[in-house]
């Protein structure tokens, strides 16, 4: 009999097993799983059959294990694996689209702990065999860890013992008013937004972020990141520009590679095999084949933005961040684990079947390009709600079955499967996937359809095996507390924020400002409106920066007459998404311009006839907005700059812009002595730049247009095709422009990425 080479340690209901020279295991005493000893080593008997199956043998290659498990799964179990849950706040919300109950009661009335499973979670995990869960808000990292342990114990006791692969949208954004303290931790480390990473022009910064973020994700029980978003931002009006790495294909590819290498690579004792392991987070790169070319800048979360257009015949450049970045990693994992196609219909780009259907449904775009031409054999997961029925052209939570609105829900699932997709985002219900399977059996026979299901199952299981979840999906909440948001990670995030702030103007070298002087900071008015999700946002009048933090740098006055400097914090213009429901109700088409300036803009130079159009809920196909007008919702930001300039009577006015999209600077630039731009930072980081504590080093990842005429004349699918704004210092706000204390930055980064503007 072989000598036993393992030991175990119990922590509550979790038993941790250490194999000498092998994998650490974790299992729940409540799940019914037992340990098998083979060759003196310990293995989990996940299907409780008393023998070691190939999929339970951690010594075997991942694909051998995945194929063995896929062959044992029922059609219903594979169908459940293909589902991706709707958004799950922990604990569940009492109302709204993400509500849940505990014993039939809302959380506050239930007596449940915040880390208990909701009724709905138990339902979709057990009855629908869901194993991919999208986590949103959590009360604390420890609660997230305890919820993870409860959820993993629950599914470990079901069927074949397949663990959950929990995921998250990006969760490392900044709170602008949060104070940074080098010695203190936080809820999670805070980093600049994606455009901020791009503004560093340094892929190593984003790779370091990916590595730290992955450690924090895994400590929260998250093994898949629904990121990075690598669409090139060729259309400056698009609502999702802020989530990209800018408009340059090569910079985006380099940033994508760094990000994914950081997230996916495990090193040292965390590595299991091939760079994968307990430190790895599967990256789901999005949105294939690029979503940044929406006509007129409208976004495809809505029916009014369903079409991506290519007037510059530049479809291929949009693939570069994927083919040259996400699929060509420097690290051992090789390529991104998963890909998410975008909602858009890539208009007239299907050269094989001539189908104008959303990318998730398009066999040419998924099977022919992604799978065959670019050899991607990872998971392809639809974006959320693509199989649902469209209820209105302007509602965020409506279904987004663009181009296939006439098909039934089950037929949509079938078409998606046949296009080469493995997984359905935001669908907790297994019934339409089973119905799609039956359609396939009818068309192709049982053998074919079973093989098609197992093909997707292997891809999906691979990502769960590689990250070590079959061996040990459990967490120690105390370890989680020590890892997430620890001071070292908070500091790394703050340093990256400093590297992401662009100085555009420094007239007369007014910067850096002298600390201890007196500053005037006007309050910022935000009118009532709606956010990207369509939810109402209240009117606000408040300081746009933490004034207690400002007081650590300057004396503060409410009187411009007493001030040495004025600091004005504004946001880039926001004129909405390009559709006005009231216009539609009044007999118009609803289509209006998206403006990148604050003041009223009339679209005299817009296309008279849109390139694409058509929706079952519309009686027309021409989506032009020519000669219609738009004004930024936050037009008061412009007034704030110009009013402050007048009140300061020649004393320096420093403008800090939080930028989500390119903008027209001509409306206020001359009334600012200095301008800095950030893409999501703590206000304190901006103050450290303004006072010279850190020298600015970032560069613009986007062009700034001279006016809206150049925006209308540029092609939605082409980068670097706008005439750029020139300020009163003679500087051109082009891609790659930025200042430091010595002047215009010219270094290895600008040499590598610089693209000359086409007038």
Automatic annotation (TrEMBL):
- Is Kinase found in the keyword set? no
| Family of this protein | Belongs to the glycosyl hydrolase 3 family.
Q: Which GO terms describe its biological process?
A: glucan catabolic process
Q: Does the keyword Signal apply?
A: yes
Q: Which residues form a coiled coil?
A: none
List residues of the Glycoside hydrolase family 3 N-terminal domain.
118-462
The family database entries (InterPro entries) matched by this protein are listed as:
Cellulose_Degrad_GH3 (IPR051915), GH (IPR017853), Glyco_hydro_3_C (IPR002772), Glyco_hydro_3_C_sf (IPR036881), Glyco_hydro_3_N (IPR001764), Glyco_hydro_3_N_sf (IPR036962)
Task: Identify the enzyme class.
Answer: hydrolase
Put simply, this protein is called beta-glucosidase
Where does the Glycoside hydrolase family 3 C-terminal domain lie? 501-740
- What UniProt keywords apply to this chain's record, in alphabetical order? Glycosidase, Hydrolase, Signal
Q: Name the chemical reaction catalysed here.
A: Hydrolysis of terminal, non-reducing beta-D-glucosyl residues with release of beta-D-glucose
Q: What EC numbers are recorded for this enzyme?
A: 3.2.1.21
Cross-referenced Pfam families: Glyco_hydro_3, Glyco_hydro_3_C
Query: What one GO molecular function would you report for this record?
Result: beta-glucosidase activity
Which branch of life, at top level? Answer: Bacteria
């Amino acid at each position: 009999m072989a000598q036993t080479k393992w030991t175990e340690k119990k922590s509550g209901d979790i038993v941790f097993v250490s194999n000498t020279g092998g994998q650490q295991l974790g299992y729940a005493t409540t799940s019914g799983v037992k340990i098998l000893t083979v060759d003196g080593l310990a293995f989990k008997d996940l299907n409780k059959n008393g023998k070691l199956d190939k999929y339970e043998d951690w010594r075997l290659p991942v694909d051998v294990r995945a194929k063995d498990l896929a062959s044992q799964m029922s059609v219903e179990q594979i169908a459940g694996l293909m589902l991706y849950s709707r958004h799950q706040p922990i604990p569940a919300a009492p109302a709204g689209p993400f509500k849940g109950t505990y014993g039939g009661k809302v959380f506050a009335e239930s007596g449940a702990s915040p880390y208990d499973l909701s009724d709905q979670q138990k339902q979709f995990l057990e009855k629908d065999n869901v194993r991919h869960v999208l986590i949103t808000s959590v009360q604390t990292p420890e609660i997230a860890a305890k919820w993870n342990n409860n959820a993993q114990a629950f599914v470990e006791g079901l069927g074949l013992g397949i663990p959950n692969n929990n995921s998250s949208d990006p969760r490392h954004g900044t709170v602008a008013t949060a104070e940074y303290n080098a010695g203190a931790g936080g809820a999670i480390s805070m980093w600049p937004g994606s455009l901020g990473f791009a503004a560093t022009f340094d892929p190593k910064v984003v790779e370091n972020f990916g590595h730290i973020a992955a450690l924090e994700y895994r400590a929260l029980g998250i093994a898949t990141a629904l990121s990075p978003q690598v669409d090139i931002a060729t259309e400056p009006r698009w609502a999702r520009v802020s989530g990209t790495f800018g408009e340059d294909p090569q910079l985006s590819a380099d940033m994508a590679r760094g990000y994914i290498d950081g997230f996916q690579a495990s090193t040292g004792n965390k590595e299991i095999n091939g760079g994968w392991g307990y430190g790895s987070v599967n990256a789901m790169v999005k949105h294939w084949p690029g979503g940044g070319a929406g006509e007129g800048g409208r976004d495809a979360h809505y029916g009014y933005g369903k079409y991506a257009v290519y007037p510059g015949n530049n479809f291929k450049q949009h693939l570069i961040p994927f083919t040259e970045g996400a699929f060509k990693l420097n690290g051992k994992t090789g390529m991104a684990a998963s890909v998410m196609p975008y909602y858009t219909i890539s208009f007239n780009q299907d050269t094989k079947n001539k189908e104008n259907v959303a990318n998730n449904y398009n066999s040419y775009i998924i099977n022919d390009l992604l799978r065959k031409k670019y050899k991607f054999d990872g998971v392809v997961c639809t974006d959320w709600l693509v199989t649902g029925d469209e209820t209105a052209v302007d509602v965020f939570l409506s279904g987004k079955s663009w181009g296939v609105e006439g098909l039934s829900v089950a037929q949509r699932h079938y078409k998606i499967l046949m296009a080469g997709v493995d997984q359905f985002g935001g669908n907790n219900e297994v019934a339409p996937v089973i119905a799609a399977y039956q359609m396939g059996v009818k068309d192709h026979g049982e053998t074919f359809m079973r093989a098609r299901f197992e093909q997707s199952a292997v891809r999906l299981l691979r990502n769960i095996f590689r990250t070590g979840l079959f061996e040990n999906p459990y967490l120690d909440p105390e370890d989680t507390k020590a890892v997430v948001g620890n001071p070292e990670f908070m500091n790394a995030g703050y340093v990256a924020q400093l590297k992401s702030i662009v100085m555009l103007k420094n007239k007369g070298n007014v910067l850096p400002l002298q600390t201890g002087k007196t500053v005037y900071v006007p309050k910022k008015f935000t009118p009532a409106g709606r956010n990207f999700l369509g939810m109402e946002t209240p009117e606000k009048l408040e300081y746009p920066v933490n004034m207690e933090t400002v007081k650590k740098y300057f004396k503060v006055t409410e009187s411009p007459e007493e001030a040495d400097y004025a600091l004005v914090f504004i946001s880039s213009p926001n004129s909405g998404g390009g559709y006005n429901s009231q216009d539609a109700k009044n007999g118009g088409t609803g289509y209006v311009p998206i403006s990148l300036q604050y003041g009223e803009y009339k679209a005299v130079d817009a296309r008279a006839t849109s390139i694409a159009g058509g929706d079952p809920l519309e009686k027309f196909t021409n989506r032009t907005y020519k000669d219609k007008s738009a004004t930024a919702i936050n037009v008061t930001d412009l007034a704030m700059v110009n009013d402050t300039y007048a009140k300061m009577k020649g004393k320096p006015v420093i403008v800090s812009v939080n930028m989500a999209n390119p903008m027209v600077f001509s409306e206020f630039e001359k009334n600012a002595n200095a301008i800095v731009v950030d893409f999501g930072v703590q206000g304190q980081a901006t103050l450290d730049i303004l006072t010279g504590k850190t020298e600015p080093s970032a560069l613009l990842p986007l062009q700034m247009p001279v006016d809206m005429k150049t925006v209308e004349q540029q092609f939605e699918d082409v980068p670097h095709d706008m005439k750029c704004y020139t300020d009163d210092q003679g500087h051109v706000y082009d891609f790659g422009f930025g200042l430091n204390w010595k002047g215009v930055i010219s270094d290895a980064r600008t040499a590598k990425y610089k693209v000359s503007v086409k007038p």
